[in-house]
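Handout, section 3.2

Students often ask what a structure token actually looks like in practice. Rather than define it abstractly, here is a full record for YkuJ family protein. The first block is the sequence as you would receive it.
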Amino acid sequence: MSQLAGIIQRLQSMQKSEDHEDLPQRLFEVNGKVLCQVKYFPATNMYEVEEYDKDRYKKKYQFDDIDMAAIEIFEIVQEEKTSSS
């Protein structure tokens, strides 16, 4: 549960970013492997999650709910942790 809370905190910090010139974005990785990149669009309050597969192909998902975005990121991270065990 603490990992999910940490993801939500990172997403909330993107909302609070006062640097309006750059689009707030964060990388989520496991053991140095980038799994996804998240962008926050303040004008629409939307999160875009770009998930990378082993060939660096991107799948994009958009969320207007911080909890749903966090759950998607959590599942991506957990899947990598489970497959690398």
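Discussion prompt for tutorial groups: The mean pLDDT is 90. How would you have guessed this from the sequence alone?
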